[in-house]
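Field log, afternoon session.

UNIT: design team B
ACTIVITY: writing a sequence onto a fixed backbone
BACKBONE:
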């Protein structure tokens, strides 16, 4: 049996717009996407969310000027979401938090079997920072995303924070550390495998 084709979309929740400085989050997303590509998962687009107007709220469409609906459509069209975020004050970025708040709308958008729009979709995390907090961000992120229906595969977070209180950014490293590279490889293998299983045999829902 031929393996089904898989796609991924990435969201970069850096606070920097794309016309500003390069983003370390982009570098981590590229690492994760590259490893997923080795397993037949094609990255269709990386969405730099700071370039869009995402209105505050917990609905899928907050009205005039809200660009979240078009982002939401692109996110849900893919099999895998790479959720990229920097760490600020030990937490995921404010843009990342706004994404979780907007996805709260999924809870009221279930189908007749109780499945949210994100059911059968996988999510992995690409996290960078110059301070501690990767485990805290991973825990908060996956708890929220799982609540609204996303599937979290094994070893689903790839992160780099370096030594405590250092000044080096991930994008400025001369080489990706071996531990980060091996984590990305394991993430990709687990994610692609589970995504294919779910694409071939979807979650049944409450009446399955």
């Amino acid at each position: 049996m031929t393996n089904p084709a898989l796609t991924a979309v990435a969201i970069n929740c850096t606070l920097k717009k794309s016309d500003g400085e390069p983003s370390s989050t982009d570098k981590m997303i590229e690492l994760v996407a590259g490893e997923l590509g080795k397993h037949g998962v094609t990255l269709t687009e990386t969405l730099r969310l700071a370039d869009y107007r995402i209105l505050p709220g917990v609905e899928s469409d907050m009205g005039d000027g809200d660009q979240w609906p078009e982002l939401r459509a692109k996110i849900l069209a893919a099999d895998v979401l790479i959720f990229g975020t920097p760490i600020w004050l030990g937490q995921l970025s404010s843009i990342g938090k706004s994404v979780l708040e907007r996805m709260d709308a999924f809870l009221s958008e279930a189908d007749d079997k109780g499945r949210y729009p994100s059911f059968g979709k996988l999510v992995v995390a690409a996290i960078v920072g110059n301070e501690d907090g990767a485990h805290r961000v991973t825990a908060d992120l996956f708890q929220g995303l799982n609540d609204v229906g996303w599937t979290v595969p094994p070893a689903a977070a790839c992160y780099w924070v370096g030594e405590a209180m250092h000044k080096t950014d991930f994008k400025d490293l001369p080489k990706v550390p071996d531990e980060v590279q091996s984590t990305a490889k394991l993430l990709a293998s687990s994610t692609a495998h589970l995504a294919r299983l779910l694409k071939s045999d979807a979650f049944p829902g409450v009446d399955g």
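LOG NOTE: The longest strand covers residues 80-88.
NEXT ACTIVITY: expression trials, pending approval
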